[in-house]
Amino acid sequence: MNYFQLFGIEVSFDVDLNHLSQTYQNLQKAVHPDKFAHGSSQEQLLAVQKSAEINDAYQILKQPLKRAEHILTLRGVDLPNEQHTFGDTNFLMRQMELREMLAEVKLANDVDAALEKAQQALAQEYQQHFTLLQTQMNENNSAANALACDNLRKLKFYQKLNIEVERLEDSLFED
User: Fold this and answer.
1) Domains along the chain?
2) Is residue 75 scored above 90 in pLDDT?
3) What is the DSSP letter of 8?
């Protein structure tokens, strides 16, 4: 299913999130199951299904990485699964360095400074890859789509590292 069609918007990596939210609310109002409380059981079931479909579409379209995956799928690109081997050894080495940096935060004399340094490094590198993904998604050709797939996987690594940073921060500053 093309979620962009469902929302009546152009297929694009760059989405106006305010417009998306407003459209979501309007669509949900139109198919809300309560509107069909006096309808047949089939009408009620269809309303629930349509509401769930709209909700799923919204969750995907509002998140850039999920939106990129959806667009690539619409373009007929086979997305590699998470277990697929990563060929960029420089990137894998950098991921190991970042994980080591996170492990060393606990041992640092100034935990706050070490944590902030790690967060800044992750944010900067994420943004570099994200900007590159935007360019690749907007190019929309087979070479750019293939590069976007790799970049998307890299961005997911950074998302996982950011979750680890949040957990680390929580564990370090618990009362």
Assistant:
1) 3-62 (1.10.287.110), 89-172 (1.20.1280.20)
2) yes
3) T
